[in-house]
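SEQUENCE WITH STRUCTURE:
===
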Amino acid sequence: MSLNVYECVKSIKRRIEEEPTAPVSLLYDQQVKKFRRENGTAAEVPVFDRIKSSLYEYRSSKQPPIPKTLASIDVPYSLTRTLMGQNFLFCNNNLLSILGFASPMAIQLLGANPHWSSDGTFRTAPKLFYQSYSIHIWDDYTMKPVVYAALLNKNINTYDIFLSELTAYAKTNGISLLPKSILIDFEMAAYNAFSKNFPTSKIKGC
């Protein structure tokens, strides 16, 4: 490995440590562009496909080990913030193992949108959790998720705490959540929890 390539890879790894949640490919592109600005466009740089495995391994080595039990889950501070330094983790209920994530900007979008859609999925659930749950809104072109949660089960108490934490988080950001309609996967526990937390909204099952 030439000195140029070594220094470029070293700078990418340093960025990985500084921004553990940023996509590795993005950090690679940024550092390669910076390296070429400083050393000329003809400077030798590493090809991403040749070093991506080592970069991903390096990132994994710098991250906390995957928890083996729910009790051992400790969300690192860096994962509770957005890349802009704003709060991202709004619910961390250790008793019922509920994790909820949304940025202040996402909450603004949620509060401004009159129609929501929510969905739970099991395929993408984090290890040890039963389901991933998300709330989506529509913009002019697409439907996009703005709230994310990892839930241990499908019980009404779990949904209720998640939603009450969401509304409380919105209030701390000066936002009232008053959607006109909420489309959900039809299950009674979710229906009852949404009805309780958003009594003026029309809850529709699909």
About this structure: The radius of gyration is 21 Å. The longest strand covers residues 143-151. The CA atoms of residues 9 and 46 lie 7 Å apart. The chain has a mean pLDDT of 90.
